[in-house]
Design goal:
Elements lengths: L2 E4 L5 H12 L3 E6 L2 H13 L3 E6 L5 H5 L8 E4 L12 H28 L4 E5 L15 H21 L5 E6 L17 H12 L9 E3 L6
Parallel strand pairs: 1-2, 1-4, 2-3, 4-5, 5-6, 6-7
């Protein structure tokens, strides 16, 4: 049974990922900034017969990341990030966005790398965003969110090159702004479930298949 840690698993896409991995037979470590959010996801998984445990991890807090205790890990899914929309933002909002998505992703990944190296088939999955692609300006996100996602993308790129010789796959997704629910048909906005399906597809490929990234066409304006 694979052990999968998912950040931001207390709601929305993170919770969908947690439920999907559990349904595929994995043991899920569902992390969130609050115990209540993580516990709710775990309860949903267990009610469906899956295996899961909860952990509180605030990606904006190095101390919170340092306090995470794990004995085994096969897949790390970096999906937690605070979205910041365009318009006025306080210095605290900007700092939290950058520290959570950028610094937090790096610190958590580095912390669990020894466990991933001990796995027979480890994956690091990064839900980055099209805002991390060079020259992309179509999202309504705040520039600080763009900056955080570019940092994530840069880290994922070098990590992929350095870990591939060890057999650890680093898989990054660059979806445009997407909706949680909606029709999954041509011309419609990308849905969270489609993003989740891409993640499951990539990690379930044979170990000779290194899917480095997913880039998505956007609905024309």
């Amino acid at each position: 049974m694979k052990h999968v840690l998912i950040t931001g698993a207390g709601r929305d896409t993170g919770r969908l990922l947690a439920v999907a991995f559990a349904a595929s037979g994995a043991h899920v470590i569902a992390t969130a900034r609050t115990a209540s959010a993580a516990d709710e996801t775990v309860a949903t998984i267990r009610a469906a017969g899956g295996s899961a445990e909860a952990a509180v991890v605030d990606l904006a807090s190095p101390e919170s990341i340092a306090g995470l205790e794990l004995e085994r890990l096969d897949v790390l899914v970096n999906s937690g990030a605070r979205y910041l929309g365009e318009g006025d933002a306080s210095p605290a909002d900007i700092a939290n966005t950058l520290s959570g998505a950028a610094t937090g992703t790096v610190l958590l990944t580095e912390r669990v790398l020894p466990l991933l190296r001990a796995s027979r088939g480890a994956d690091v999955v990064n839900l980055i965003s099209a805002t991390g692609e060079p020259g992309q300006h179509r999202s309504a996100a705040h520039p600080a969110f763009y900056a955080a996602k570019h940092a994530q993308a840069g880290y994922a790129e070098i990590l992929s090159a350095r870990l591939r010789p060890e057999g650890i796959r680093v898989i990054s997704l660059f979806p445009p702004d997407f909706v949680q629910t909606g029709p999954r048909e041509t011309g419609a906005a990308l849905t969270a479930q489609s993003v989740v399906d891409c993640v499951l597809f990539a990690v379930n490929q044979p170990r000779d298949c290194f899917i480095r990234s997913f880039h998505f066409e956007q609905v024309s304006n």
